[in-house]
Specification:
- This protein is of the alpha/beta class.
- The chain has a single domain (2-253), classed as 4-Layer Sandwich (Nitrilase/N-carbamoyl-D-aminoacid amidohydrolase).
- It contains 8 helices and 16 strands.
- It has helices spanning 15-31, 52-55, 61-74, 119-122, 150-158, 175-189, 238-246, 249-252; strands at 2-7, 36-38, 57-58, 77-79, 83-87, 90-98, 104-109, 131-134, 137-141, 163-167, 192-196, 199-201, 206-208, 212-214, 220-222, 229-234.
- The mean pLDDT is 98.
- The structure holds the ligand NC(=O)CCC(=O)C(=O)O.
- The ligand NC(=O)CCC(=O)C(=O)O binds at residues 41, 114, 117, 144-145, 148, 169-171, 174, 177.
- Keywords: Hydrolase.
- InterPro entries: C-N_Hydrolase (IPR003010), C-N_Hydrolase_sf (IPR036526), UPF0012_CS (IPR001110).
- GO terms for molecular function: hydrolase activity.
- This is Carbon-nitrogen family hydrolase.
Length: 259
C-alpha cells in the first residue's frame, strides 16, 4: 500500500488558494500511483481561529465535494487531514476521508482541543472515535494533540485499526515530543502510524515538517523531511500480524486491572 504524505505549507486564512493546492497535490500523488494521499491539519484556513465566522467550511460541504470528486476522478483514497468547519453556529476541527469510489467514509471532530493554540476558545470538541475502511484495511484517524492521549489511540486500535493517521500542525519547538510520541504509539499498539505535519509559519508558530511513518515494530520509514512536498512510503500490512504474533500484547492485556 503506497502512501503519499503531503507535507504542505498552508496559506493563512486563504481557503481558496489552499483548495487549489490540494487539487494539485492529489493529481501528483495519483500520477505517482499512491493508494492513499494524506494531508495535514486545518489545511483550509490554518489557525485563523478568530476569522472562522467568515472562513470555516459550512457543514464541510466544500471540502467533501472537492475530495469526493478528486478521489473518484483519480481513483485514489484521500485522508483529507482536517479543515475548520461550521455547523449550527459552532466551529470544529474536522477530518473527512474519501475512498477511491468517491464516497465520504469518515467524519471526525478533533476530540482533544489544544489550549496553547487557543482551540478551546473557538472550537467545540468531538466525542466520537474515527474508524473507517480503505481498500479492505481498517484504519483510524485522530488529529494532532489527540496523539498525547494513548488511551484514545488504543481505543481505535481495539476497534480494529491497523493504520492510524495523524494529521497535524505541530510547531517546531516541540518536534522532539512529536517524534517520540509517534514512535511510542506505533510500538505500543503494534500498528502503522502515518503522521503528516505542515511546513511554513503563521503569525504565532513555525512548522518544520518531520512527517513520520512508523511501522508496527517501531522502524521509522519516513522522517526528517523539512521541505514542502510529497513524501512516499510503502506499507506491508502483513507486518501488523507478524509483530502481534511475536509479542502478543493484545492477548496479554489485563483489562480488569485498567478500570
Ligand atoms: N495543533 C495541535 O494540536 C498542536 C499540538 C501540539 O503542538 C502539542 O505539543 O501537543
Amino acid at each position: 500500500m503506497k502512501i503519499a504524505c503531503v507535507q504542505m505549507d498552508i496559506q493563512f486564512a486563504n481557503p481558496e488558494n489552499n483548495f487549489t493546492a490540494i487539487t494539485r497535490y492529489v493529481e501528483e500523488a495519483a500520477r505517482n500511483d499512491a493508494d492513499i494521499v494524506v494531508f495535514p491539519e486545518m489545511w483550509n484556513t490554518g489557525y485563523a481561529l478568530d476569522k472562522l465566522e467568515s472562513l470555516a467550511d459550512l457543514e464541510g460541504e466544500a471540502t467533501k465535494k472537492l475530495i469526493a470528486s478528486l478521489a473518484q476522478i483519480y481513483t485514489i483514497n484521500i485522508v483529507a487531514g482536517s479543515v475548520s468547519t461550521k455547523r449550527q453556529d459552532q466551529f470544529y476541527n474536522t477530518m473527512y476521508v474519501a475512498n477511491r469510489l468517491g464516497h465520504i467514509v469518515a467524519k471526525y471532530d478533533k476530540a482533544h482541543l489544544f489550549k496553547l493554540m487557543e482551540e478551546h476558545l473557538f472550537l467545540q470538541p468531538g466525542k466520537k472515535t474515527n474508524i473507517f475502511q480503505l481498500d479492505n484495511t481498517i484504519c483510524g484517524g485522530v488529529i494532532c494533540y489527540d496523539l498525547r492521549f494513548p488511551e484514545w489511540i488504543r481505543k481505535h486500535v481495539l476497534s480494529g485499526a491497523n493504520i492510524i493517521f495523524v494529521p497535524a500542525q505541530w510547531p517546531d519547538k516541540r518536534i522532539d515530543h512529536w517524534q517520540i510520541l509517534l514512535q511510542a504509539r506505533a510500538i505500543e499498539n503494534q500498528c502503522y502510524i502515518v503522521a503528516v505535519n505542515r511546513v511554513g509559519e503563521d503569525p504565532n508558530n513555525k512548522f518544520n515538517g518531520h512527517s513520520m511513518v512508523v511501522a508496527p515494530w517501531g522502524e521509522i520509514l519516513l522522517r526528517n523531511q523539512t521541505d514542502s512536498g510529497i513524501f512516499y512510503t510503502t506499507l506491508d500490512l502483513s507486518e501488523v500480524d507478524r509483530v502481534r504474533n511475536t509479542i502478543p500484547v493484545f492477548s496479554d492485556r489485563r483489562e480488569e486491572l485498567y478500570q
